[in-house]
Amino acid sequence: MSDKVPDDGVISRSSNFTCGVVEGFYGRPWTTEQRKDLFQKLKKWGMDAYVYAPKDDYKHRAYWRELYTVEEAEHLTGLITAAKENGIIFYYALSPGLDITYSSAKEVSAIKRKLDQVSQFGCAAFALLFDDIEPEMSGADKEVFQSFAHAQVSVSNEVYQHLNHPRFMVCPTEYCAARAVPNVTSSEYLNTLGSKLLPEIDIMWTGPKVVSRILTLESIEEITEVMRRPPVLWDNLHANDYDQKRVFLGPYSWRSPELIGKLRGVMTNPNCEYGPNFVGIHTLAQWSRCNVDGKRDLSLNDSVSADIKLETETEDGGTGEDIPSNLTPNMYHPRRALRNAINDWLLEFSRSKQAWGPIMKPQPVIPVPIPVPILPSINTCMTLTTTTTTAAANSSPATQTISSSSLLNPTTIPYSGSSTDASPIIPPNTTQLEALAEVCSTVPSVPENVPIMPITAPVMNSLASESKIVALPPLSTPLPLPLTVSLAGVPSVPIPLPLPLPSNNVCEPMDCNPTPNGSPAHLVKTAASSTEDIAMAENGSGSSVVVSGNGSSTAMQVDSTDDNTNFQSASNTMVVETAQDSEVVDENSSDALNQLSDKDSMTYEDISLLCDLFYLPFEHGSAGTQILHDFNWLKTHAHVVCVSHSSNGCGADVAETAMKNPEVQEWYDRAAKLDDMTKSVNQLFLKLTHSPNRELLHEIYPYIWDFRGIISVLNSFIKWLGGGKFSNMMGNFTPSSFTWFSKGWKETFMSGEHEPWVFRGGLISDLQRLLPVDSGTDLFVYKVPEVPSSKMYDIRPGNLLTDQHHIRSICQSVYSTAPCDQNLFPDLVNDSFLGFVLDVEQLVALVIEDELEVVGYAVATVDAKQFYSQMKTDFIPSMQTKYPFPDGSFTSSLDQDRIRWFHSYNVEVPEATIMSHPATITCGILPSVQDPSALKRLVVCLLAALRANGCFGVHIAIRPNDQISLELYGRLGFVDLHPGLSSSYVILGRSF
């Protein structure tokens, strides 16, 4: 399986070319321990540079003027020393652009003083970063400098000369072609930088876009000419700080090694999580040692050698490109590089490492159950209307004004002009990009601002401990900026829109509109003017909060209804999680892999599958694409299962003769393949949870946990379809408006003509959109377990002959909250909440089970009108006979209320509600099930099954004092359809 390039065949890089890692993402920084481990790996892989630039490490950006304390200086010195010992150039970067006054001698002195201090620690390479700031100068700067570029050039040149001409880099404000005004060649800013910045200073560049899919020789030659020097590539290909559901484990791709001779260097800005960067950095190292593109057709003219072709896709969705057999050591092919990286990564999973703190930082969401085509994310600056940060000249704090569109989740808000119709208005015969532009153009921009709540970015310190990140206590001087949001143009929705809170204000890799909400801005500047910094101040004795040291900022979207969700950047307690359910393996043992049992050991195939499921920003891996195609094919061709049943109709069992039909046989064969893939993902999930490397597990767990959940739902839905209990017209009921298979969607996703956060959520979201539940995005909002668990819950079609007693037992457990005379009324709870629903003919029933038993159920009647008719004529009279009107002798008032309800039953569901929400539902799950996603996944599968029967809405009538049901269905996105309709019942419902 291994196909490594021999050392003697490696092409040596030019001494003028540097290659390494820039820690430049938003979110929780890496720990000192992780950085030292990185230096060792960089040395081993032949790389030579590291740039310290974590956006949310508070003395790098928000509090850039503050000098390091003795303790912080010790850790930073240790890092610089460790880098030197491994032959790594340590670049210390500072980001003063949020609030610097370029014309102030005091401000420039503050930069010099800070970098002088770091220089004393042994650092000999520096960088000034002016990315992600407003390209506007203060009034004082306008009086001194001709332009914004002139101001930055002046400060950069002066600092560079003050430091006696060290290795030095600058990241410009226009750092990619998409942000060059009006374009690269005509940009006054870039031309000024190129002509005025001292020629020895390197300039960083991300390529055509913030996250560039392809880099061509022509694009690099263009920027080289403008900047009068080859750029250092700040490569965001593997950055994931803009998307909470994606981590990128694919190989370094879409860059020809022929670019190496055109660049001053390549620095990858990778995933927020440290451990999962193994593949990205390892494959970049392999790329840097090659000079020929192994993917291109060598028969083509050399003029197109750097343009890398899309991998061809087979009919079933797999990738048709194999690793060529004639590759030489100096040829780079991403699949060969991935193979080499996976073989080396295997050992990391067997090493025994502790994980500190919680798995994730909570991610606030917008749980609005209404679908919409792809729109910009609330976590990025990719807004449909301008996002600005303004500050009155004599006012403080500043006010951040965010357009209404920046609050919209890309899959939750409908837009069709001012209409609230869930379908966007898109002209026919348009490409996906044109459709997106059309959708975007309908979003209004209204100047009216509505004050919401102030937000503050977390203050984190990665230099206060070797293995942990410290969240500092709140500042004594409040600095948050009040957030005001333009909401006048937002369509009315039934659920309030929670705002993104400080816990995870994750931005795009180099966010265009930065975090003034976390910056000291002019308040700190004013304080600095009156108080001298202490060069090596001792740490204060104030309390601090220790948070996870695993580098993880991988929060899945969090269930905002969960009582334990507090949206804090860190837990107030430290969780130490060691290796469980597996042998502790010596980190330095060369025989580490062999010490694990076969059951628990990760294999090459396991990691290959993991990488395929979380591949790259503009492409899914072959296994992920195969799952997309298999599920879509099974859903599209499910009609053959229905029409092939016996004469009793679609609800009957599959006839033996039907299985002789080749089309039916093919359907079940493909369903078995999807089931096998689901089992493979489950095995991968189990092996990960048994891994001795708890740190790596904590970083990957949220992603694989979420993916295991969605593929389980898909597989469960297919199993339900296999029973054939759906309408012959299913094909008319289940198409989704915007999926991987919509016209132009896949092509646009892979084109790179957009930033990747336009398609937020990656493969997980693409799979979710295939389920015929257009308005069910809120049901995919979960809180990941704080401690990794191997507990799995699986959904399957219910069998009322064998599952009925489980369903009744669960119902009894859920609703028996008060003492009940079981001898007199043992069936009262089940009669009250299940009624005769289990006897209805047109019934959709699903159950969820763990490895031992059924733990939950979701049951729905397809025809509510017939259901209520039978309730009145048959069930209610029988209940009135079974339970005489209470005379007050019962010990439980709750039981009395339940019995009285039978005698006063007067539920009248309006005809319009039955037309729009024709199904009724009842569900429950054992209180012992702590996973909040379990019931949601069960219900979303039920809704998909109802959709296959032509139902687009479901409802339930509940007594107003039944708080258990009100809370349960409220968490499932049900709302009161008719407020004030009756004092004796409430009708909750939802559309899908």
UniProtKB/TrEMBL annotation:
The keyword Hydrolase applies. One of its GO terms (molecular function) is beta-N-acetylglucosaminidase activity. Signal peptide: none annotated. GO terms for biological process: glycoprotein metabolic process. Coiled coil: none annotated. Transmembrane segments: none annotated. InterPro entries: Acyl_CoA_acyltransferase (IPR016181), GH (IPR017853), Glycosyl_Hydrolase_84 (IPR051822), O-GlcNAcase_cat (IPR011496). Its EC number is 3.2.1.169. The keyword Hydrolase applies. Residues 17-292 form the GH84 domain. Pfam families: NAGidase. Keywords: Glycosidase, Hydrolase. It comes from the Eukaryota. PROSITE patterns: GH84. It catalyses: 3-O-(N-acetyl-beta-D-glucosaminyl)-L-threonyl-[protein] + H2O = L-threonyl-[protein] + N-acetyl-D-glucosamine; 3-O-(N-acetyl-beta-D-glucosaminyl)-L-seryl-[protein] + H2O = N-acetyl-D-glucosamine + L-seryl-[protein]. This is protein O-GlcNAcase. It comes from Thrips palmi.
